[in-house]
Amino acid sequence: MVYQRTIAKEVKVTGIGLHSGKKVTMKLIPQDSDFGIQFLRVDLPQSRPMQANALTVGTTENATTLGSGLEAIHTVEHLLGTLYGLGINNVLIEIDGPEVPIMDGSGASFVFLLKETGIKNLNKSKKFLVILDTVRVEKDGKWAQFEPHSNLAIESTIVFAHPIIKTQKFNFEFSCESFIQDIARARTFGFARDVDMLKRKGLIKGGSLDNAIVLDDYKVLNPEGLRFNNEFVRHKILDTIGDVSLLGFEIAGKITTYKSGHNLHNLLCRKLLETPSAYEIVAASSLKAEAREAHKLPQFISVSH
Fold it and tell me: What is the pLDDT of residues 141-166, one digit of tens each?
């Protein structure tokens, strides 16, 4: 059995929003099976819980936003990617501001938080979204697609005219363990030359070398350097996992992306949902053994029942 999961106990974390620059406190509260991932803005008196769902995505410029207007919740992708990476399906996220804290710009802080909090198996089996046919979206020379595969696999290519990045390609076959080791620690990145333009747009007010890789025209400005020589494309995969997790199920299928971003990922999810013949929702027990095995948590994470 691959059981649905929540966290073992309530946990709270405080940090800065990357784009808003605002200090925000976020509380994760365990929930029962089939609750899903829901966000609640506790700083707004009339706010109601919002399901993390591909169809509730609003803006996608430089981050993935759920909802719109005053109740919007920005920059959800790293937290959602980490919840997916650890197979956590049911949690209420209370937040007292407009944006999930950026932490160190990766999923590593959330992995640490969830590992310390503990993970709990619920008494109900997971369901998986199985890709049956190829679905593809293209925009401005960039593209992303789903195709059938026995487990979640992501092949991502990024292209930047920068001597440190250039063209990077990475093939990732999902397992909880490989997510923690190979993807979660990869940080978001940006270019010093874009800082003024982004700030004029009201973005990256909380950005710093503590929560992003920053590059000038030739080199990485962070004194500690990179965590992986291809950290940039690995971070793209973290973003991709966070964005496709909004389909609401673990996925058995291959995702291939070329120069993609949050907007393209959301368009791909929406197109899949509009193509019912291209997927089916199945019980975990009907998957191949290796696909179920990939969702086992590593031994260094405590799991209660």
Answer: 999 999 999 999 999 999 999 999 99
- pTM strictly above 0.90: yes
Q: Please tell me whether residue 293 adopts helix, strand or coil conformation.
A: helix
Catalytic residue among 19, 78, 235, 262: 262
Measuring CA to CA, which residue among 78, 102, 95, 117 is closest to residue 38?
A: 95
Q: How far apart are CA 280 and CA 76, in angstroms?
A: 26
Q: Tokens standing for 68?
A: 């719109």
173-227 pLDDT, tens digit each: 999 999 999 999 999 999 999 988 888 888 789 999 999 999 999 999 999 999 9
Domains of the chain: 3-125 (3.30.230.20), 128-293 (3.30.1700.10)
149 as an active site residue: the answer is no
Q: Are strands 50-51 and 135-139 parallel, antiparallel or unpaired?
A: unpaired
Instruction: Please name which of 296, 301, 285, 284 lies closest in space to residue 249, comparing C-alpha atoms.
Output: 284
